[in-house]
Amino acid sequence: GARSITVTADNKTRKYGETNPALTWTVGGDSLVNGDSLTGALTTAADTASGIGAYAINQGTLAASTNYAIAYTSGTLTVGARSITVTADNKTRKYGETNPALTWTVGGDSLVNGDSLTGALTTAADTASGIGAYAINQGTLAASTNYAIAYTSGTLTVGA
Fold first, then answer.
1. Bridge-partner residues for 3, per DSSP?
2. CB 9: neighbour CB atoms within 10 A?
3. Neighbour count for residue 24 (Cβ, 10 Å)
4. Residue 3, number of CB atoms within 10 A of its CB
């Protein structure tokens, strides 16, 4: 009869926006003999645009000759959040003027897949605010759940 083997997909991880790692497996049970090997490949539904979460690693086309009976155990590809830094750009203006546009720079793993931030930075300063330094806060500026943001505030300096 056929030789009984187990094929277990190895669990894998990657960040959102990256290509999938090589999908590998471990053979157990009676094992392969006579230099035999498996052919084909494991598959997963996840691609570079797939959001954070867990995706099954399926048997796909992975197979052995008819001399073997395969018992397959799926694995999991875990897609984690992409770490980005958002730094508010420092700004200056004169007393009595309106605030300049509050802008930022994205660093770290960067934005991918055409993603962008939504919302806006905020500051407590308005046209009536006196001369001094005012924090530029994250406000409503946000990214999708595919990102983990580390925010660094900036300073709006109101001068004479």
1. 68
2. 24
3. 12
4. 16
Angle ∠(53,55,59) on CA atoms, nearest 5: 170
Listed residue (87, 88, 84) closest to 147, CA to CA: 84
User: What is the CA angle 79-86-133, rounded to 5?
Assistant: 160
Can you spell out the DSSP letters for 65-91? -TTEEEEEE-EEEEEEPEEEEEEEPPE
What percent of the chain has pLDDT above 90? 99
Considering the segment(s) 82-159 as one domain, its CATH architecture is Roll (3.10)
Per residue in 59-95, pLDDT (tens digit) is 999 999 999 999 999 999 999 999 999 999 999 999 9
pLDDT band at residue 33, thresholds of 50, 70 and 90? Answer: very high
Residue type for position 147: Y
In angstroms, the Cα distances linking 11 to 73, 74, 115 are: 11, 9, 27
Structure-token pair, residue 48? 């570079």
Q: How far apart are CA 57 and CA 73, in angstroms?
A: 9
Length of the chain: 160
